Description:
By secondary structure, chain A is mainly beta. Chain A contains one helix and eleven strands, in the order βββαββββββββ. Chain B has two domains: 9-199, Bira Bifunctional Protein, Domain 2 (BirA Bifunctional Protein, domain 2, 2-Layer Sandwich); 208-253, SH3 type barrels (Roll), CATH 2.30.30.
Amino acid sequence: MSIKKLRITVDGKAYEATVEVLDGVASAPAPAVAAVAAPAAPVKSAPVAAPPGAGSPAARPAVTAGSGDILAPLTGLIVEVKVTVGQDVKAGDPVLVLEAMKMNTVIPAPKAGKVAAINCAKGENVEEGKVLVSIA
Amino acid sequence: MAAAPSISAGPRSLPDAPGWEILHAAVVDSTNDRAAALPAWSCLVADRQRAGRGRTGRAWVSDPGGLWCSAVVPTPAPASVWTALPLVAGLAVIQAVAALGVQGQRLRWPNDIMIGNRKLAGILVERFHDDRVVIGMGLNISNDPAREDPTLSGIPIRLVDLLRTPPVRDRLLAAILGQLRTLHGRFQVGGLAAIIAELNTLWGEPREVVLDTHDGTRSGRFAGIDLTGSLLLTGADGTTAVLPPTEVRLLRET
């Protein structure tokens, strides 16, 4: 276990924070402060180290390079499917809207291509990691 | 669909809400949809919405006389804690409205602002981009949503029902945006720990609730949240169940 002292400046105001780093993983109670100490970019990492209940990161969908598969970035409800099979999409076009904890996350197309398969439906609960849409 | 809102006024600033740029439109389909293209610390206000959104794609009646707006804030880092942002927004609205003299508000998880069993305001947080989050807020001031939608009869409550002299919309907006910016900063630095004590005073008396989760329903008495944002439910046998927020789809009061 190590203790770090940080000074964090937000909007010109400086805050001093003491952070306990447990086994290299930021401890749960002050996640925002702890994560500032972590050098890794949390957005793209898998939520392996997240303590239970801390909530899955609202990360970009984990896309296998070149596959065009859009995976659910978190467990939630499909609120809207914005594309149809055969539709051409550009990288960044909104494809799906996923709701968790009354927050909507719009999931974009990871690459340009044609919608090859839609593996979910509006109103469906999906688990994090499920393949939702495939872009060819 | 046009990327820019049909702005009739702005950007302008409000003295009590430093740092925010306010844009105004007479009518839009949805302020959240229009605000998706705006930078952080913008707020789009509309006199009415044609297609306001509530949770799960339901319609949110936005007739003239209410506050219908979408505030854009930077995504708090790390991305994993942004799931508590709906609570931050709920707290900001409740505190701003209380400061204007309204008593008796309570927060219904995650961010319905209630007076008893009637709804004063609703919040819908949407993320269209990585770097920022849109916080949609709808608050009834002097409008009459039940007139537009009779199925709402008895559900909404308005500031005119609660205050002899309700604030004009700009004053209410400035109060909310000022508080939202302050809380966003505290949350950014301290996470949920920075606001949890205050939040846990705002749920009102413990109520029987039913939670829709991913694998069925759970019921019990709502007893607040913990530092991870998990919901605490007290069972009839006195035990406390802890439910991670990402597993709870919906909370209903019974």
